[in-house]
Amino acid sequence: MSDNTASALIPEVYTRLLAAYGPQHWWPGATNPFEVCVGAILTQSTAWTNVEKAIAQLKAAMVLSLEGIHQTPVEELAVLVHSSGYFNVKARKLKALAQHVYDNHGGDLAAMLVQPWEALRTELLSVYGIGKETADDIVLYAANAPSFVNDAYTQRIVNRLGITPAKDDYESHRAMFMGALPADVLCFNEYHALIVKLGKDVCKKTLPRCQECPLQAICITGNRGPT
Q1: What fold, for 33-142?
Q2: Is residue 161 within 8 Å of 13, Cβ to Cβ?
Q3: What is the pLDDT of residues 57-95, one digit of tens each?
Q4: What CATH number does the domain located at 3-25+149-224 have?
Q5: Residue 214 contacts residue 16 (beta carbons within 8 Å)
Q6: Would you give the DSSP letter of residue 207?
Q7: Has this prediction a pTM greater than 0.90?
Q8: How far is the C-alpha of 12 from the C-alpha of 17, rounded, in Å?
C-alpha cells in the first residue's frame, strides 16, 4: 500500500460512509465530558449495551460525576459497573482517573481537558488503565480535539480495503488516517462513529455482508467475496 493510495482512499471511505449512514451524533448518551471519560473506560473489551447498563447503575446511585467516583469506595463502584465486565479492574481505572484529576488539576476536569491535545494525550496515557484508544476517545469526544481514534473495527476495515500501513499497529493506523485527513474534530468524530457502525452491522469479524456494504466498489475483499 502506497501513501498516495491511502491518501486518496481514506477521504473517499468517509464520503461513502457519510452518504450511506448520515451523521451519527457521537459520543452516545453522554451529557458532559466526564460521562465520555467514564464511557471510554467502561467500553474497553465489551459491547456498548453493557456499558449503558453500567452507566444507568451509576446514575441511579447518583455517583456519575467526578466527585461521585472519587468519593465512592472501589468495591461499591465494582458492583455498580458489573455489567461492563472486568468490573473490579474498571472500577480501579475510574478511581485512578478521578484521583489523577484531583491530584493534578484540583478536581477540575475542564482544566485538564483544555490543555493542548498532544500534552493531554500524553498525560492521559500516564494514568492507570488508560491506553491509546481510550486516551484518543477522551481527547476527541471529551476535549473536542483532533486525535483520530483507531479501534479494532478500523483495523479490520482498512485491512480488508487493502490499505494496511507497513507496520500493522495502533499508532501506524492512526497516523495513516491523520495524515490523509484535515485535523478536523467533526470529521474525526463522524469518521470513527461511521466505522463502528459499518464494523458492527456489515463488515463483521466473521461472515461480513459485503453485498450490503457501501464500500464494496472500492474494497479488495468485497470484490473477491467475503473472507
Answers
A1: Endonuclease III; domain 1 (1.10.340)
A2: yes
A3: 999 999 999 999 999 999 999 999 999 999 999 999 999
A4: 1.10.1670.10
A5: yes
A6: S
A7: yes
A8: 9
